[in-house]
Amino acid sequence: MAISTPAAIRKQIAAGTADPVYLLQGEDDVEKSALAHEFEELVDEGLRAFNVDRLHVGDATSGERVADRVADLVTAARTLPMMSPRRVVLVMQAEALLVPKRESEAATRALDELEALLKKPDPQTTLVFVAGSVDKRSRMYKLLAKQAVVVECGALEDLGDAERWVKNRVAAAGVTVDPGGARLLAERCGTDVKRLRNTVDRLLLYGLGQKTIGIEDVREVVGPAALQDDWAMANAIEAGDARAALRQVALMFDAGMRGEMILGQLGWLVRTKFAPGRLRGAVDALFRTDRDLKHSAGEPRVLFERLVVELCGGQRGGRSLGSRL
Q1: CATH classification at residue 100
Q2: Which terminus of the chain has a smaller tally of CB atoms within 10 A, N or C?
Q3: Long-range contact list for 255-260, CB < 8 A, 24+ apart?
Q4: In total, how many domains does the chain have?
Q5: What is the value of pTM for the model shown?
Q6: Which domain holds residue 212?
Q7: pLDDT in tens, 58-105
């Protein structure tokens, strides 16, 4: 099974290359829909009417309807592209076909046809299944796990993914967002999808009736204080992500948080999360920072930046503190 990410698939699409079969799954419907739509870019815009099919199969609630939808799917997937090197077939709400709600002789025959298609897909067609929750024990999921590229939608890798997620989410509400506003929101919220979703919902409510969300709207709703996750810095250090920890230090200072409060949080982290082999060095670093703060031996922000990098062990993500100590 090939497992990929939305970011990797976008690079494939931009390069004009694609595998025969994809399964887009996960709970983030906005991300899945946006990524599915981007597959259309594999076909020249003027030829998409002839070479892009979007099939909605959520109404396949009986064996007969499953058979009808599979027949439509097989026909679309086996049709040769017209004046284009490739066809794209998007199958929305695909779980209705992959795991039929009702078993019947007609549904079983239809799944046999679908299985034959997946085992030998047409090389000139890119077939994209867009599904919600699919039982991983099911016959069709196991086959897709072997034959398709499985893409988990909802996990954001970097701020670029977060910015794109914001734009897609706002667009799904029929509104546009200023690029600078989308970037600012991504910087404040990071790659936490739940936090992004909640913040965008608040932003849309704030801008109700507006056609465009501007950067000033974003600043009003998601200023540093409103966005500050009190434990984001500690979580980043525990994950060994110095880059994210430094970003959180900047947000804390922008929000006006006092140095002693930040130091107290770091003291708790060291006492409760650090392994014995690193404890003494971490405590020494804490005491040194506390002394330097009291004697004004440096700019507080710089002192804390040096401290969090030390506590991260100089690493930039990938391993937790426990795995390094």
Answers
A1: 3.40.50.300
A2: N
A3: 255/224, 255/225, 255/228, 256/225, 257/228, 259/293, 259/300, 259/304, 260/293
A4: 3
A5: 0.59
A6: 159-225
A7: 888 888 889 999 999 999 999 999 999 999 999 999 998 888 877 788
